[in-house]
């Protein structure tokens, strides 16, 4: 029995769990070696494709019965940390990536700015040192941790009140409202904020400009 030397487009779809157009896009980018037969069908070099997987550290892969197979856990982790390739099932992509980073449009929405203004901030030496950025699928993303450092390290730009939930929008104390916006942006949990009638211990210590431990002593 001869060793398999080529993959079909269908096989790449099955291995990567992506659509046919996505595979064609990879072929156009010449990510690995391939040839086109007289009938228009593609044949992809098995060695070239397998090497691409390994060198990209995309998945944990193993050859079983002469065929390359992808570890399911490593595939799911890859899928949750990218925003380019879609499963044919339509499952949401990039869940983990979105949990720790913002896209430029998301940062623009949070600040109530245009995309071009966000790019100006990212390039400005006065602010650029705050940010940690990565490029995923040729698009820049900003880590949420560095975005928080930016909010706390300057006084010109603030979270846009237009994104407030109803109770936060009613808060009359601007300093407290900004603190709660930053906290919500950081945690993503409304319950981490107080409400119109009560302060959290963190909010009380921030407004009183004393330590959290001192607030605890006062409370007891």
Would you kindly provide a written description of the structure presented here, covering whatever features stand out?
This protein has 220 residues and is α+β, with helices and mostly antiparallel strands. 49% of the residues lie in helices and 13% in strands. The chain has a 3-stranded antiparallel sheet with strand order 1-3-2. Helix 1 crosses helix 2, helix 6 packs across helix 7 and helix 12 crosses helix 13. The longest helix is centred in the C-terminal third of the chain and has 14 residues. The termini are far apart.
Task: Provide the fold topology.
Layout: E1 6-7, H1 9-16, H2 20-28, E2 34-36, E3 42-45, H3 46-56, E4 61-64, E5 67-70, H4 72-80, H5 95-100, E6 101-103, H6 104-111, H7 115-123, H8 125-128, E7 133-136, E8 139-143, H9 144-153, H10 166-169, H11 174-187, H12 201-208, H13 212-219
Antiparallel strand pairs: 1-3, 2-3, 4-5, 6-8, 7-8
Helix pairs in contact: 1-2, 6-7, 12-13
User: β content, as a range?
Assistant: 5-15%
Unreliable stretches (pLDDT < 50, length at least 5) are: none
The number of distinct helices, counting runs of at least 4 residues, comes to 13
Q: Indicate the radius of gyration in whole angstroms.
A: 24 Å
- The string of secondary-structure elements, in order, is EHHEEHEEHHEHHHEEHHHHH
| Largest sheet entry | 3 strands, antiparallel
Structural class: alpha+beta
Given the C-alpha coordinates, what overall shape results?
elongated
Q: Widest sheet: strand order?
A: 1-3-2
Helix content: 40-55%
Calculate the mean pLDDT score and round it: 81
Number of strands: 8
């Amino acid at each position: 029995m001869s060793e398999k030397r080529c993959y079909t487009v269908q096989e790449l779809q099955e291995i990567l769990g992506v659509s046919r157009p996505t595979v064609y896009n990879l072929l156009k980018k010449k990510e690995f070696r391939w040839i086109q037969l007289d009938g228009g069908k593609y044949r992809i070099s098995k060695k070239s494709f397998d090497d691409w997987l390994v060198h990209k550290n995309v998945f944990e892969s193993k050859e079983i019965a002469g065929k390359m197979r992808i570890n399911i856990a490593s595939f799911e982790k890859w899928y949750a940390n990218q925003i380019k390739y879609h499963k044919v099932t339509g499952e949401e992509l990039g869940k983990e990536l979105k949990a720790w980073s913002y896209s430029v449009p998301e940062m623009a929405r949070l600040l109530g700015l245009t995309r071009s203004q966000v790019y100006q901030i990212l390039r400005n030496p006065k602010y650029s040192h705050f940010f940690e950025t990565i490029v995923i699928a040729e698009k820049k993303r900003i880590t949420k941790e560095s975005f928080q450092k930016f909010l706390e390290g300057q006084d010109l730009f603030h979270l846009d009140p237009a994104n407030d939930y109803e109770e936060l929008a009613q808060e009359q104390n601007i300093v407290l409202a900004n603190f709660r916006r930053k906290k919500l942006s950081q945690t993503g949990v409304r319950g981490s904020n107080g409400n119109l009638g009560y302060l959290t211990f963190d909010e009380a210590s921030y407004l009183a400009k004393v330590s959290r431990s001192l607030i605890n002593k006062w409370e007891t």
